[in-house]
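Q: My collaborator sent me two sequences in one message, no labels, and asked for predicted structures for both. Can we handle them in order? The first one she listed is below.
A: Yes, handling them in the order given. First sequence, followed by its structure tokens:
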Amino acid sequence: MKFSYQQWQKLRGLRKFFLSGEPNHRSYWDSEEILALYDQTFAVRIGWRWDAAIRQLQFLKWQPTEKTLLDWGCGSGMASRKVLAAFAQFENAFLIDLSPVAEGYAASMAKAESPATSIRTGILPEEPFCLVLSHVVGELDEAGEQHLAQIVARASSLIWVEPGSYTVSRKLGTWRDRLDWPVIAPCTHRQSCPIPAPKNRHHWCHFFAQPPPETFMSADWAEFAKQMEIDLSTLAFSYLVLDRSAPPSRTPEIARNIGSIRVYKAFAKLQLCDASGLHAVEVTKRDFPAIWRALRKGWTPDLVQVETEANRITKWHDLAGAPPPPPHGTGPVGRGAAL
């Protein structure tokens, strides 16, 4: 990342807009240079979010059945490239953005990485398609949401990844409840999302992606973190995957851990979401010493099956298996970075 002062300024300008929460009425993709700068920096971090979401789908043994993909609001095309790399059945990919420059850049990158896939830009597919959405909900005004609703209505499945901020996550939850489709992830149930309940007003559905270990040994990424004032170890995201053709039944006793974990001297606090709602639970060092030590070192469980007494976990089964703690950082805390 040997960028000039002017290039760093362009990246700062992008970040400032992304964090503003303002609707995007005109494209900021006005040149291939800015797209290339973005694709080497912010888009890579977005790709790590997509990697984390796709790993969960692979664990659930779910994949899209369509042969056509639509990346709406494609930007540099990182999202569609990740999906095309993960699911080999796609024969066609359609890329749409406010900016023809972005469409062209995204198409060229997709063709280079997925040469067997037919890549087209600027038009909607007529056949059933998997809709890919990435980092768009924060840029939509009311008219933009109505336009997106028309696109969503034509899709047969949906993979949607967003930053893990409080506001964006709750907007994504609103979309989840308004779309009456079978939910693949992150929900383990078909009931309404419990997050909007007044008692849960301080919570939001978000997770943490782990950057590759080599990121923390890279002088380039260290410079990027310094220039953008970003904590590389904290990468929060929210996501939503729906499939019209999926069976509606789910296993109600399975819960998903959401948000940050608070680790104290003798116990740790988690937020588990399942068919009965959102639950604040504790896992004690005395009952589960290995789990407590892993949590203290930064490990984050995902899907779990537990039994509790008075909000204290008495039985624990981690459905994804407990990986070793990450080698860098002390684990995610707080709200996480927006980009």
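Q: And the one she listed second?
A: Here it is, processed independently of the first:
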Amino acid sequence: MVAAEMALILEIQTDEFWQDITLPMLETVRRRLRAPVKLIEYKKRPLVYSDFEDRTGAAADIIVPGIAVGTDMNAFRRKARQFLKPYESHIAVIKVRRNEPLMPTDLTELERIFVEAGADDATLATIQADGGLSRFVRSLVGLDREAAKHAFSDFLCSANLPPTRTSF
């Protein structure tokens, strides 16, 4: 096994081999030497202790291009949608789906659910500024079919439009 890979073993010991090395080349070396490496006998070596002094200096803020500062609302929506699945039968979530009025205790419960999901004060403030927690939850869980029909018929009546034959 070692004799079959001896040319490669000798080649990787040269400086020229490591000039302009690529990831596919390293992967080829890894695959070819995987079996012969198991033949190396383990030797006990003495432990080496090091005592280094940290001289990194003061910390500095850096700007990383392409990474948004603050809450990524799209990622938070995906996470919140998954987190709300077990709470589909919670009374506050049911009220939001059915377009029923929410009590202050319902809003407190929705906020508690989102704090459990990892929402911080800044995220909750952003949600409140974008229309409130109940509107955000509605965007995640949707509106019940019957509640949508009822809301649509109420809209037609308030707009003084003649009813039309629609099917949902």
